[in-house]
Write the C-alpha cells for this entry.
Amino acid sequence: MGLFGSSGIRREFSSSLVEICLRVGQIMGEGAQTVILGRDARTTGPLLAHAFSAGILGSGGCVWDGGVAPTPTVAYATRDASAGAMITASHNPEPYNGIKLFNPDGSSFFLSQQSEIEERIGSGVYPPVTGRGRNDRRDIVTPHMDAILGKISLPSKSRIVLDCGNGAGSVITPRLFGAAGGKCLAVNANVCGRFARPSEPLEENLHHLPSLIRENSATCGIAHDGDADRMMGFDAKGRYISGDMMLMLFAEWLGAKKVVTTFDASMAIEEVAEVQRTPVGDSFVSERLASWGDFGGEPSGSWIFPDHSLCPDGIYAAGLFAMIASEWDVAEWYDTAPQYPVLRDSVRCVDAPAVMKALGAESPTIGLRREQENGWILIRASGTEPKIRLTVEAQEKADAKKYLEIGHSLLREGITKIRKEQ
C-alpha cells in the first residue's frame, strides 16, 4: 500500500488520514498493548490523536497521552511502554500531518513492522472492538528533560538564541537551557498551531537569527522543526552550520569512532571516523545503530545518540551543541574543518515514484547513487512530498556543478520516458 515514507506516515490532512490513524490505533492496541502518544502543535493534531486513541481503546489497549510534546520526548517515554506514537508531519508545511511509530528503544518501526501494518490495513482485518481500553494523561516532558540534564550543563556565560518554529520543542527546550544554567532568548516559542516561518530548519528559513545572535552576543543559535526531532545550529558569528559540518562536530566532540549516516552525507565525515551509510531516512540510521556505531545522523538535522535513545533527539542535540559552543570556539573549528562542495536541489514531480523506477531504482525513496571520479550523485524521491531530490558532492565546486547538471539530465530522461509510456 505504500503508507509509510522515509519517516512514518505523512500526507496532506484529509478524512482518509483520520481513518488511517484509527486503523493503525486498532492494530497497535491489539493484545492490550500500552502506547505512549504525543502530538505536535498543528491544529489537525487533536482530531488525529483522538482517532488513534479510539483505535487503541477499541482494541482493549491503554493510551498514555502526553499531549503536545516533541517526537524525541515521546520516543524516550516509550521505554516504559509497548510502543510509542507521535502525531506529526515533522518539518512539512502546516496542511500536512501524519504519524510516527516507535519501539521501546526509541527506534522507529523497522521496515518489517511497517509492512505488517500495511498488510493488515490492506486486508481490512482488524482486532474485534472490545471497548475495554484505558486513556491516562502522563507528564512525559519532565522525565525526558531530567535525563538530558544528567548529561548537559551550561556555564552562566552561555547565551543561546533559540527558534522553536512554533513547534513542540517550545514546551521543553527553553526550559532545558534555563535549568542547565544558561540564558536563552527564545523566539517562535509558543504552540499556537501556526508556524511563523517554514518549519524545516534550513538556512533560507532562518534569516532573522544571525542578527539576533550578534546583537545579543550569543554563544550560539539553535533552530528546531515542527516536532523537534531535528536541530540545526549557528556559531557565535551568526553563521549557519550545515548538516554535514554538524555531523562532524558532534562526532569529534563525542570522540565517536564509528558513525552511521546516510548516502547523501558529505564524504568529509570519513576523515574523522569509520562510516557506514544507509538510505536517507532516520529510521534506517537508527536500525543500523541498533547493532553498530557510536553516533549517527543525517544532514537534514537528525542526530541520534544511541546511549541515550535510538530516536533523533533535537532536544538533546540542542543541549549538547550549546555545551560545545560554551567550551569550544565553534567558529574557529568551522573555519579549519574539512569541507567539500555539496549541492542540493529538488524538482516538484507528482510522478516521482514512476520516474525513479524508470531510472532503474528498486526503491524510489532509496533512489540511485552514481559514483563519479571525484564525488557522487544521488537522485531519490522524497518520502514525504511530491518531489525528487538531487544531491551531489565533489572535491571541487566546478565538478559539483557539473554533477548537478548530470543529475538534472538523468532526471529529464526519466520524466521523458514515463511520458512516452503514458
User: Anything to note?
Assistant: Residues 397-421 form the longest helix (25 residues). The domain at 4-139 is CATH 3.40.120.10 (Alpha-D-Glucose-1,6-Bisphosphate; Chain A, domain 3). The two ends are 22 Å apart (CA to CA). The longest strand covers residues 387-394.
